[in-house]
Fold:
Amino acid sequence: MLNIPQKPWSEVENELKAYREIFQEVNKAPAPPPIVVGFTFCHEDEETAKEMATKYVGNYWDSIMDHYEFQSDHLKTTKGYEYYGKFTEKIKQYGNQDVKDFFLNLQVWGTPKQCYEKVMSTREKTGSESFLAAFSFGAMPYDEVEKSMRLFAKEVLPSLKDVPAAV
Structure:
């Protein structure tokens, strides 16, 4: 199962529980651990990391809002997209900026130490053993993408490789 953080962790935990139960029932074997994707920005300076993540995760968010047309109610009755229909209600309830900030804070960004801690926190919440870092998003310039990716690879990845498999 691929998990893209976009909703409260309590909802993700409930969905993973149901997934594991159904997988076990159908396959007569435990479900494999989920893979978690995170929009990732790593920088030595915490404030710069926050500014860059806010801008470029924000740009990505805006593109999703436009693509799915979340400002309208059309997804509420579209089979398979009911959650997105409810999502539209949350945007109306809390406002686009608050929901955008919520999404931003589910992602992995910060200093190398903060990035490591966020990946580990996600692992604890989901039981994942794999993290797929998406470094290029929101029209971020490729030189910034590369710097972030290389810093993550140098400073975060070795520590993640040392983490034992979940039990």
In short: The mean pLDDT is 93.
